[in-house]
Amino acid sequence: MSEYDYIIVGAGSAGAVLANRLSADGRLSVLVLEAGGPDRSPWIHLPIGYGKIYYDARVNWKYTTEPVPGLGGKPSYWPRGRVLGGSSSINAMVYVRGHPSDYDAWAREAPGWSWDDVAPLFRRMEDWSGEPDTRRGVGGPVPVRDISEDVHPLCQRYLAAAGEIQIHHNPDYNAAEMAGASLYQITTSGGRRASTARCYLNPALWRTNLVVETHAHVQRLLIASGRASGVLYRRKGKEQTARARREVILCGGAVNSPQILQLSGIGPGAVLQRHGIEVIHDAAHVGRNLQDHLGADTLYRAKVPTLNQQLGPWWGKVRAGLQYMFGQRGPLSLSLNQAGGFVRLCPGTGGPDTQLYFSPVSYTRAPPGTRPLMRPDPFPGFLLGFNPCKPTSRGWVEIRSPDPAEAPAIQPNYLDTEEDRLLMREGLKLMRRIASARPLRDIIAAELQPGQEVQDETALDAFIRDHAWTVFHPCATCRMGSDPEASVVDPRLRVHGVQGLRVADASIFPSIPTGNTNAPAIMVGERAADLILEDARG
Rounded mean pLDDT of the chain? Predict the structure, then answer.
């Protein structure tokens, strides 16, 4: 048995941030328990290599949801990081802060989380390489790369096509405004992925007051007299105990944090009793309110070469490898979604309601268990994709048994509301409008998916059911709020009803942000560190 001031469960997007910030004060001892292993795979660090680890159980939880009625009864495959850096080590690296209205909405439920409160945290964590702007941060731990000089030439055609249908070019969607067509910003540096393991954890590993244990699978929390006093975890085949003098902080993400709470007797009483778990705190919202972005792609055969011709044939791979080896440039240094943007399709207030994606490559999505995920098509092609930003469908995460090794049941309930189904239809129509604009129309040989036969509402809905897929942004399963009857953690991220316990990861989002969720999750880690250190100082 060992004792520390703080125990952090999970070394992911938020957990690695906390490990760094809390251990910076040499008087505080910190233990980090990560269920996965070190981030040694070269496919983690090669930016385009995330397709290779999409099904790699060595770094990936490889979750599969329950059958989803809105997807025609099919399950959805959910890769989640099980490695130092968590999902920041296996994601597509696109950096999006979110819209200011996202955080102003959070603050209505959790004071202290408005845009004015969190914008300084985004600036603090950023090292922005693009055009200087007082709204952007420079010198922070997270490199955010402007890729405008490296993208495939087809991206310029995409931007021009968007402009022809009145979607203006926005050179920095993380600055003055979010709406418009843009080139995506990514978290890389020196041609390598900039995960939170690389940016936050590695620089702190030399500190003697920080201990990081990998392959340490937390079984449950230790709770006595209404206070979290430590954790029970399994490592190298043995159960071990660690005690927390001050706090335990869950940073397991939208799936693992509610799972650990439920295994520990904190969750919906009926669910816990069904599995023979003693109810320590009946918290109805643990595992509820699950939100995720659901997307769909349109596929076009091109008349001109695309990235397929660079990444498919052996000679193209050799050339791309040499570009990367001798300059850390070229397609291997980028994500596949090189361009995109944000628009509002339906009348309303606030920020954009739809996110756009443009990939100058096309590929067939492999079924679960198949390698690699992204095999370029043998013909020139590209993808136009989208996802609604603010889905109204709500799902849940729930343990299947008291066995911590058994994956929980996940039901995202995609397309459960007419509002979500309407936005998916409108998104497909927008993809066709962009493709029909002259700069793209001139190079399109054929629409392969959905295909010109898919036109009416019934056919569009059928295509969406068959082809929609998660954009990998699950969140909100331990939602934050002032009202303990409607949330799991308070605005200082303390679990309602249990002392000495916080949650700090994407599960605490009251609602899903506009755009990719990794940057907001890192911000939560920064905010949590400030709150914890404030409380420690009294």
Answer: 95
Q: Rounded to an integer, what is the distance from CA 160 to the centroid of its chain? A: 29
What stretch of H or E contains 64? strand 63-64
244 within 8 A of 500, measured Cβ to Cβ: yes
Between strands 2-9 and 238-250, the pairing is parallel
Closest C-alpha to 510, from 530, 532, 538, 481: 481
In the chain the first and final C-alpha atoms are separated, in Å, by 28
Would you call 473 a catalytic residue per the annotation? yes
pLDDT at 185: 98
DSSP 115-132: HHHHHHHHHHHEEE-SS-
User: Is 5 in a helix, a strand, or coil?
Assistant: strand
Q: What is the mean pLDDT of residues 32-47?
A: 96
Residues 6+ apart with CB under 8 A from 119: 100, 135
Angle among Cα 129, 130, 134 to the nearest 5 degrees reads 100
* Dist CA 134 CA 122 (whole Å): 12
- State mean pLDDT over 471-489: 97
Over residues 73-125, the pLDDT tens digits come to 999 999 999 999 999 999 999 999 999 999 999 999 999 999 999 999 999 99
Return left, alpha or beta for 305; rule: phi > 0 is left, psi -120 to 50 is alpha, else beta: beta
Q: Which two tokens stand for residue 239?
A: 């159960």
C-alpha 229/C-alpha 110 separation (Å) is 26
User: Which residue among 99, 285, 473, 496 is the active-site one?
Assistant: 473
From 489, 505, 374, select the one nearest 48 (Cα to Cα).
374
The answer to whether residues 440 and 434 touch, using CB atoms and an 8 Å cutoff, is yes
Mean pLDDT throughout 196-208? 97
SS3 58: coil
Beta partners for residue 83, in sequence order? 37
- For residues 376 and 256, is the Cβ–Cβ distance under 8 A? no
Q: How many residues does the chain have?
A: 538
358/4 Cα distance (integer angstroms)? 47
Core vs surface per residue 343-371: b (16+ CB within 10 A) or e = bebeeeeebbbbbbbbbbbbbeeeeeeee
Cβ atoms within 10 Å of 225's Cβ, excluding its own: 6
Is residue 526 within 8 Å of residue 17, measured between CB atoms? yes
How far, CA to CA in Å, does 42 sit from each of 95, 238, 246, 321? Answer: 22, 30, 37, 14
Nearest to 412 by CA among 82, 76, 80: 76
Single-letter code of the amino acid located at 213: E
